[in-house]
Specification:
Radius of gyration: 14 Å
CATH superfamily: P-loop containing nucleotide triphosphate hydrolases
Structural class: alpha/beta
CATH architecture: 3-Layer(aba) Sandwich
Number of domains: 1
Helix content: 10-25%
CATH class: Alpha Beta
Number of strands: 7
Number of helices: 4
Shape: globular
Distance between the termini: 27 Å
Oligomer: single chain
Strand order of the largest sheet: 1-7-6-2-5-4-3
Strand content: 25-35%
Largest sheet: 7 strands, mixed
Length: 159
C-alpha cells in the first residue's frame, strides 16, 4: 500500500493501550472514511475497534463480525460499519451481501481482512496493522489517501 505520509508506529503494552489507541483514532477520523485493518487472528483488531466505538460514544456491546460479516453501529450523525471478510471463500461474496450499500457519506467503514474482498472493497484512507509484540501489540498506521493523511495528522496517542 502506497503511503502518502510516513508510517507511524506505536507499541501498545496491553489491552488498555489498544483501547486507548482506538479512542485516539476516533478523535482523528471523520466520515466518510475507510480503514483497512490488518493483523493475524487475535492481534487486537476488534479490541481497537471497541476503543474507537467507545471514543465515539457507543456504550453497548461490541462484537466481532467474524460470523455476521458486518456489525453496524448507529451513532446519530454517523454510522460505523465493522466488517470482517476472513470467511470469504470468493471475493464476489462482497457483491452477494450488498456490502457496498453501507459506504455512505456519514459512515466510517472498518474492514478486517480487506484483501478477501478482492477489487470490490473500496480503497483505504488509512491502513492499520496490528501485530503481536511480546505481551503487547505493535500498531502501524499509514495514510493511503489525502483524506487519510489529514485524519492521521490529527492522530495523537499518549501512552
Amino acid at each position: 500500500m502506497m503511503s502518502q505520509t510516513p508510517a507511524r508506529d506505536y507499541l501498545l503494552a496491553d489491552e488498555a493501550a489498544t483501547l486507548a489507541a482506538g479512542q485516539a483514532l476516533a478523535r482523528a477520523l471523520t466520515a466518510p472514511a475507510v480503514v483497512w485493518l490488518y493483523g493475524d487472528l487475535g492481534a487486537g483488531k476488534t479490541t481497537l475497534v471497541r476503543g474507537l466505538l467507545r471514543g465515539l460514544g457507543h456504550t453497548g456491546a461490541v462484537k466481532s463480525p467474524t460470523y455476521a460479516i458486518v456489525e453496524s453501529y448507529d451513532l446519530g450523525a454517523q454510522h460505523v460499519h465493522h466488517f470482517d471478510l476472513y470467511r470469504f471463500a470468493d471475493p464476489d461474496e462482497w457483491l452477494d451481501a450488498g456490502l457496498s450499500d453501507l459506504f455512505r457519506p456519514d459512515s466510517l467503514c472498518l474492514i478486517e481482512w480487506p484483501l478477501q474482498g478482492g477489487g470490490h472493497v473500496p480503497a483505504a484512507d488509512v491502513a492499520l496493522t496490528l501485530s503481536h509484540h511480546g505481551e503487547g501489540r505493535h500498531l502501524r498506521l499509514e495514510a493511503a489517501s489525502t483524506r487519510g493523511a489529514h485524519c492521521l495528522s490529527d492522530f495523537h496517542l499518549d501512552l
